[in-house]
Amino acid sequence: MKRATDFERVYREVRRIPAGRVTTYGAIARRLGISNARQVGAALRAIAPGSPLPWHRVVGAGGAIRLRGHGALTQRLRLEREGVSFRSRGRVDLRRFTWRGGAGRT
DNA sequence: GTTATGACTCGTA
DNA sequence: ATACGAGCCATAA
Q1: Is the pLDDT of residue A2 over 60?
Q2: In this complex, which residue's CA is closest to the C1' atom of nucleotide C8?
Q3: pLDDT at residue A48, rounded to an integer
Q4: What is the maximal distance between C-alpha atoms in chain A?
Q5: N or C: fewer beta carbons within 10 Å in chain A?
Q6: Distance set, CA A47 to CA A6, A56, A78 (Å)
Q7: Which helix (H) or strand (E) segment is A28 a member of?
Q8: pLDDT band for position A4 (50/70/90)?
Q9: Measured in angstroms, what separates residue A65's CA from nucleotide B8's C1'?
Q10: Is there contact between A97 and strand B, defined as CB under 7 Å from any strand atom?
Q11: How far is the CA of A1 from the C1' of C5 (A)?
């Protein structure tokens, strides 16, 4: 039988993040039992442009946007449109917007 | 098989 | 706050 690849599992997890919430690469890695956060980033980097996947809801440790260039702006704009506010230095206010999934859903 | 790459993270300065 | 270095390790070439 065919088992889901790590990438697929990452995508599935990202899809569960509700609008207006964010999570981090490291948190997803931990949740899925993936050895390092870099792999989560690799999965997201591999998605096709225009994918419906809400990839913008994944940020780096401390709420930092890790994308560079144009992508960073797109991510911030999308998040702000969902009501996610940023603190200084472009950090998401994780205290308020981190998605605590699994335990409570939504 | 080997290298190179990186949307990570953390510690140190 | 910024900068650098070092672990990290799956994927792609």
Answers
A1: no
A2: A36
A3: 85
A4: 49
A5: N
A6: 13, 12, 17
A7: helix A25-32
A8: confident
A9: 11
A10: no
A11: 43
Q: Which two tokens stand for residue A99?
A: 């998605």
Is the CB of A58 within 7 Å of strand B?
A: yes
Q: How confident is the model at residue A105 (pLDDT cuts 50, 70, 90)?
A: very low
| Structure tokens that stand for A22 in this block | 């964010």
Tell me what pLDDT residue A86 has: 95
Distance A20 CA to C9 C1' (A): 31
Task: Name residue A1's amino acid.
Answer: M
Stated pTM of the model: 0.91
Residue A60, exposed/middle/buried by CB under 10 A (0-12, 13-18, 19+)?
middle
Q: Cα angle at A12 between A62 and A52, to 5 degrees?
A: 85
The 10s digit of each residue's pLDDT in A43-98 is 999 998 889 999 999 999 999 999 998 999 999 999 999 999 999 889 999 999 99
Q: Nearest CA to A46 among A3, A19, A11, A78?
A: A11
